[in-house]
Specification:
The chain has 181 residues and is mostly helical. Helix content is 52%, strand content 8%. β4 and β5 form a beta hairpin. The protein starts with a helix and ends with a helix. The relative contact order is 0.19.
């Protein structure tokens, strides 16, 4: 099996596992803050939220550069929207026009966020379906200006789906456990 086939298989499996864990996600769970002062997705106009946020529309995601130490705990909403935004940015810079910024139009509900995530995954699945073994060595641009081999882009994207997918899965388990008591 060639490396490109392994990456295709890993991408597909990671995305399918994550999307299956998002089944029946409602807004209460999406926005649930398991600890005080979570980073989340919120309306730009919310006076109780931090001024540092990314997004260009009504809904924004909490974010600061440099990231505070320790990093704030993040909600399911933050993790899904962050993951989709990362997917869109990697796609745009590595395989597209290299014109996006973090000021994306963020979704404001669980249903919209899951659809936005799935659309970002499908867009990337189309790209990896057309990759060849030889193209994995091609230098590709990242959204911060570095050049990486294409295979590193894919390894990073797969890792992001798995990493944040595991976090989301655990938060969903905690939410259900909390709801039973």
């Amino acid at each position: 099996m060639q490396a490109v086939e392994i990456l295709r298989s890993q991408w597909s499996a990671a995305c399918e596992r994550l999307v299956s864990r998002l089944d029946q996600l409602g807004d209460d769970e999406f926005f649930w803050e398991p600890v005080p002062n979570c980073w989340t997705v919120h309306r730009r106009s919310d006076p109780a939220r931090a001024a540092s946020a990314d997004g260009c529309g009504e809904w924004v995601i909490d974010y600061e550069i440099p990231e505070p130490q320790p990093a704030p705990f993040t909600t399911i909403a933050w993790r899904i929207v962050h993951l989709a935004a990362v997917n869109y940015l990697y796609f745009d810079y590595a395989f597209g026009s290299a014109s996006l910024s973090f000021d994306l139009e963020m979704p404001g509900s669980a249903t919209e966020a899951v659809a936005w995530l799935q659309a970002s995954q499908v867009q990337l699945a189309t790209v990896i379906a057309n990759q060849t073994h030889d193209s994995l060595d091609n230098a590709t641009l990242t959204n911060w200006g570095e050049q990486w081999p294409c295979e590193r882009i894919w390894r990073t994207l797969i890792d992001e789906q798995i990493h944040h997918g595991a976090e989301i899965s655990l938060l969903r388990d905690f939410y259900r456990l909390r709801s039973r008591h």
